[in-house]
Amino acid sequence: MKFALESFFFTLYRTCRLLLLLLLLASGGLAAQSGAQLIHAEVSRGRVAGDGERVMILEGAVHFRQDTVDIYCNRADHYRESGKIVLLGDVHIHRGKERLSAQKVTYYEGRKLAIAERRVRVQRPGQSLASEYLEYYYRSDKAFARHNLLLTDESSGVYVTAERGEYIPQQHRSKVWENAHFWQIDAGGGDTLHIHAEVMEYFFQPERRAIASDSVRIRRGDLTAQCDSASYLLSEERVFLERNPRAWQQGNRLTGRQMEMDFAGNKLRKIRVNGEAVAISVEDSTAGKMNRLTGQGITAFVVDNKLSELWAYDNARSKYYLKDNGLSQGINTASADTIRIYFREGELDRIAVKGGSQGIYYPTGYQGKIDTEF
User: In Å, what is the CA distance from 360 to each residue of 172, 229, 357?
Assistant: First the structure.
């Protein structure tokens, strides 16, 4: 009976030791897999850092791998205790179809964080990012960049520059600030759209769009606009301007509470102004003569980069200086539900009024008072 008990406890002891050994091996294997594994190096040597930590120095076609991330460089200083690798000289980090390159990268194994410096570039299919400094988190795909930042969306012909920026993958967007500049090049050789702002967000999904805020300035050909907030829907070729929008084109100025610009085939087609809309054009700057059209809403139609029609509605009012073959023909004022101004080759052609219309014609040389309501 005693022998049987001793045999039982001995077997139990050996089993426990075996289980403990297996657990230790398993935990050691997991720990090893969690860090970066050295695949290749031509030369390796050791040194002791100033704080006493041992450093493995690797040179010549260095290759590390951690999970799905492959790391290549000319030299690597591996701080094994702190889990840090300083990568130097033609550094490349690959993960699937994604590529990161720089002259120096500090890689933290535990956090899977790469801090890249000098000539940094990240490439994905159809997209790229360039900067002088980048923090890239491989677990979450978040990225923070600064200094000479350039974002490229090749499929849409879009480029964005700024001093600082971040990429938020969960929201499918990038945000940049400090002298942000968005531009979209027309592949057909048309005018390039430029948007300048202090802050800009660019969304890749579900639809490509850019949102600019703070001191927004927009240029396309001879069109210039300003506002405090703007949204550009790339697929619709439509720009929405909010908060004190104003636009200029060929001597014509539009203002209102809200503004919408429509482009077709990369050419300006229409501008809609909503709320306290005003359209002004200079007739004679030296004499202070200004053509003026107002209403709760105004739509400006553009053909071949020239103003073709102006439609004002809801309490519309107008005051226009008339000409015939370049000679003054007096002043026409009108008020109505709707006023339509038609142009030919950029010059006033005719005026049409509709609904509760009133108007006054002042001939050339008229010396009396002109109704200031217009």
Answer: 57, 39, 10
